[in-house]
Design a protein that fits this description.
Elements (H helix, E strand, L loop, with lengths): L12 H10 L1 E4 L3 E7 L5 E6 L7 H18 L7 E7 L8 H15 L11
Helix pairs in contact: 2-3
Length: 121
């Protein structure tokens, strides 16, 4: 079973801002994926759910769904990147399989899935 280690999570506001400002983004109905290349192996991920989504319970549920989607497929993602997943308003009523499909679709479009041979420009 794949685990999501504490070292693999973006925590600081500075790193979130770095990924937001300098990373490329791909959007889908439920999610936005930011990808920021870094030097060296490894990957880190951050999860964001703004207050526009609803109360704390709703925002935490969104982050939980994004975390689970990432955790299940982290081995398929390319190393050497920081990833940031941001939930969008239509994702509020979504179930886990739909969130997972949205994540995989974005990762494929971004060209960061290991089995994908091309990158979208």
């Amino acid at each position: 079973m794949l685990r999501l280690s504490k070292r693999g999570i973006l925590r600081s506001k500075r790193m979130f801002q770095e990924v937001y400002l300098h990373g490329r983004s791909w959007a889908e109905r439920y999610l936005v994926l930011y990808v920021f290349p870094v030097i060296g192996p490894g990957r880190k991920v951050g999860f964001a759910a703004g207050k526009k989504l609803g109360n704390a319970v709703t925002r935490n549920r969104m982050k939980r769904l994004m975390r689970e989607s990432y955790r299940r497929h982290q081995a398929r993602l390319a190393e050497g990147f920081y990833y940031l997943l941001v939930a969008r308003k239509p994702a509020v009523g979504v179930k886990e399989p739909e969130m997972e499909r949205a994540f995989l679709k974005l990762a494929g479009r971004a060209g960061v899935l290991k089995h994908s041979a091309h990158r979208e420009n």
